[in-house]
Amino acid sequence: MKNKLIMAIALVMALVAGWTATTTTAQAATDDSLAQVQKSGKLVMGTSPDYPPYEFQATVHGKSQVVGMDVAVGKKIAKDLGVKLVVKSMSFDSLLVALQTGKVDMVISGMNPTPARRKNVDFTHTYYQGGYSIVINKSDKGIYKDKDSFVGKTIGAQTGSTMYTESKKQTSGTTVKGMTSVSDLILGLQSHKLQGVAMEKPSAQAYVANNKELAMIPSKFNLSASDTSASVAFAKGSTSLVAAANKSVDQIRKQNLVNKDYLPAAGKYLKTNTVNTSMLHYWKAFLKGIEYTLIITVCSVFFGFILGVLLSLARMAQGGVFATALRWLATAYVEFIRGTPMMVQVMFVYFGLGLIVNLPALTSGIIAISLNSGAYIAEYIRGGINSVDKGQTEAARSLGMTKGYTLRYVVLPQALKNIWPSLGNEFITLIKDSSIVSIIGVSELIFQSNIVRSDTYRGVAPIAVIMVLYFIMTFTASRILNHFERKMQHD
């Protein structure tokens, strides 16, 4: 009996092993990730450029570029593959989603190849072995010694990072606060909202070296080798691409290129950034942010208005089964959009629809905000149409005007006059809400201010500048809208 059981188990194991080997061979045979990259002629790298010296923004020949140790690694891989490197910036916690949805070909952002991440993506060999430190205010240097000194206090870490996870696991009685941007964490530290910021040692050294008000202490976290190493992430199953990248990574390790070339080059860019940290020096960055903010706002209002008109007419449709279905669909759409956060909608359009159509970040942002705005404008227009006296419609129909002409030339002009203040308010709101698209890497005003903060290590000044810029835009828009509103009041 035992022999039969052993033989049965052995047979099952052999079948499973054979199936696994066959599946692996089939996957390897069908994997064309390397061929696709070489065919396109470009390798798209996703990164979060707020983590010097790994990746950060610097002004090179008058233009803002993403530079740093990780960018150098990306360039090495792309060069060895015979393709061009394209760097795409976004928040750190969106990088793996972008990789899984095909928005980027690889992620290089000081990312640790933890077991949890390996379940969803493939990693190359390690290209850098670092460590972790905690950045504190220099005035608190005598108070805090390591992670165990923050009992009853608050430590910050970048959301989605290993340090955020380990800070929550390995501290007791300490509040751990996550933020998407390291610049925000440093600002929180300097404004005493946080007492410490956990980050990788090279980044901690960069911030301390360029800000005299900060200091660095050892973290003393108990971490495995995978938690302190940095690797390149690729989409799951990209066997051929990972194998090709490993050749470059192995050369980087063998020749010690990170310590010998990449980190010193990043240090030079860091010094260049801190030569002139005046906000006037970054006027091009702020101007670019204003440009993208206005493009997003104007396009979203335009398409949102068209969508709003269609939705409002659909919600007011009268008639048989088709009109009822149309009314139900329009109502469901409006309620769903108004009942979900715009940030979720932006991420769904960019990442979710990205599985079907690879839309650029700016286009995705405009589509998402237009869809959101259309739902609100639909209600404004519906209210405006209902506010027009029914006698106006009856008088127009008695003169022989069709329903379409009555709506177009009699009802809608009066409704527009009634809802103009609400439409103006929607326009003003969208100027400010356009900042949400910064999470997918659109270079609007908030995104550009984060770049300036990373470049200059100044937390408050860029925020003050964009507050003024937002006020100028909204105040100017308000005056223009009020001008047209006054003209409408003259019958």
Description:
By secondary structure, the chain is of the alpha/beta class. It has three domains: 30-129 and 231-273, Periplasmic binding protein-like II (D-Maltodextrin-Binding Protein, domain 2), CATH 3.40.190; 132-222, Periplasmic binding protein-like II (D-Maltodextrin-Binding Protein, domain 2); 280-488, Orthogonal Bundle (MetI-like fold), CATH 1.10.3720. It contains 19 helices and 13 strands. It has helices spanning 2-30, 33-40, 69-81, 95-100, 115-118, 162-170, 182-190, 201-209, 225-228, 239-254, 257-273, 283-315, 321-338, 342-352, 361-387, 390-398, 403-433, 445-456, 460-488; strands at 42-47, 50-51, 55-60, 63-67, 84-89, 106-107, 121-129, 132-137, 154-158, 175-179, 196-200, 214-218, 229-235. The strands form three sheets. A five-stranded mixed beta sheet has the order 5-1-6-13-7. Strands 10-9-11-8-12 form a five-stranded mixed beta sheet, sandwiched between helices. Strands 2-3-4 form a three-stranded antiparallel beta sheet. Helix 12 packs antiparallel against helix 13 (321-338) and helix 16 runs antiparallel to helix 17. The longest helix is centred in the middle third of the chain and has 33 residues, at 283-315. It is elongated, with a radius of gyration of 28 Å. It starts with a helix and ends with a helix. Mean pLDDT is 85; it is low at 1-29.
